[in-house]
Amino acid sequence: MMMDNPTLHHPQIVQLTTTNPQNINNIQQQQQPHIKPPGEMENFLTIRLLMQGKEVGSIIGKRGDNIKAIREESGARINISDGTTPERIVTMVGTIDTLSKAFDMICQKFEDDLKQTCTTIPPITLRLVVPASQCGSIIGKGGAKIKEIRETTGASVQVASEMLPTSTERAVTISGKLESIESCFRQICQIMLESPPKGETVPYRPKMMISPVHAPIIFANGQAYQVQGQFAIPLPPNELNAYASLPQLGPGVGMPAAPLMPNGLPANRAQLQSQREITIANDLIGCIIGRGGQKISEIRQASGANIKIADLDEGSQDRHVTISGTPEQIQLAEFLIHSRIASEIGGILITH
């Protein structure tokens, strides 16, 4: 009886012996799925920036040329939320190196824009949206870490005391010269990478904070504007019929009367109080205060917000401005403050 020769029926079987280790390695590599090196994914970070529509338009560029170049040159994945709200979220994903490159290119674009409109370039200011559970690591014990960041980079760093609406995230505002905020951003990224968020994070999603019917109204050069977020939208004359008479509160500023409160807010929302802190370069603070405090008084009266300007800290070039009131009052006050700054430095905040 003849035995079947297995080599005749199974020509693809390779005999493996200890004298053929290369074949063993080849087979093992073919059987094992591709596994990324340990730590590769852990080095990836997600950074969210909160920007105004005009800022987003600047980094997108005509036909998307700018954002395409930033993506390609930095290697970071960048997504921008839809444009139906005054504020938009720019989400960047990558390593610290790729994120820093993308951030540097964004800041450079903003500085180039400022050079075209300003004789004296003001500090570049950007807002990061950071999970509240990570903000403690940025601040450090007794504020030691945030103080170190400020001193080593020369940038101004402010962590909001309250979370952004309907979220568990806070705004971290960084401001300063180009090199300063680039270095500051890298340090914050390193902290966030080393201290991941704890628990569930409810992301902030920008919304229209004021309904169109109850949005405050301001006047400039004979044109009525409706304040929505940090933007002033030109209001067609026929839509003014929805409002009562609009008394003047100061040069170029008017507010709606009944059925709204004197500060331009619906009566049922006038009791909701919150607070926001912004940072302004010391050499620009005078244009906000005005001669004898006239300008800051007008802003307080027009917005209904309480505004406090802190003294200049030793060694700092920035002043801290605390705005308290309802969300709408704070938004209007911040808008009027930035309008004053834009007017002083030759920039344009109101869009047509």
From TrEMBL:
Segments forming a coiled coil: none
Matches recorded under InterPro entries: KH_dom (IPR004087), KH_dom_type_1 (IPR004088), KH_dom_type_1_sf (IPR036612)
A Pfam match: KH_1
Any one GO molecular-function label of the UniProt entry: RNA binding
Swiss-Prot/TrEMBL keywords: Repeat, RNA-binding
SMART domains: KH (SM00322)
The keyword RNA-binding is assigned to this record: yes
Domain K Homology as annotated: residue spans: 43-111, 122-193, 272-342
Protein name, as recorded: K Homology domain-containing protein
Organism: Adineta steineri
